[in-house]
Design brief:
By secondary structure, the chain is α+β, with helices and mostly antiparallel strands. About 30% of the residues lie in helices and about 35% in strands. The longest helix is centred in the middle third of the chain and has 15 residues, at about 85-100.
């Protein structure tokens, strides 16, 4: 069995849409995410955990003017609880550290919030029921 690997894409790369299009298009994923459809912003960097041709999970970084924004963290249901999300987390953090900019994130997912807090992110506000966190990265 092939080991899972993280492939890094930009949204302009040739096979990005062939690989990721279903997650942007199908409402099943938006329903699971509380009604939020996955999206990308031009220039976003995507981290896709793959095992052969299968997508196991993904997350992204959006480059803003004064900070990096972590967005779109998702593991497919059948791959949750196996420690695989750590591969995505580490790949995204390693990439973000090279950018040496403040990292911001917003989430209402208790699992993600615990991870942000464990990793040194600090709470700085709310947007509705979503918590906002940031990490100095210089």
């Amino acid at each position: 069995m092939e080991r899972p690997v993280v492939k890094i894409y930009t949204d302009h790369e040739g096979d990005f849409w062939a690989t990721m299009g279903r997650y942007f298009a199908f409402r099943d994923y938006a329903h699971e995410m509380g009604g939020w459809q996955f999206y990308t912003k031009s220039g976003s960097v995507w981290f896709v955990l793959r095992q052969g041709d299968k997508v196991l999970g993904f997350c992204s970084i959006i480059q803003e003017r004064n900070h990096i924004y972590f967005d779109n963290f998702y593991m497919l249901k059948e791959y949750r609880g196996q420690g695989l999300s750590r591969l995505l987390w580490d790949a995204r953090m390693d990439y973000a550290r090279m950018m040496k900019q403040e990292i911001k994130v917003i989430s209402d997912n208790p699992i993600q919030i615990r991870r942000y807090e464990r990793e040194g992110f600090t709470f700085y506000g709310m947007r509705g029921h979503y918590k906002k966190y940031k990490l100095c990265n210089s």
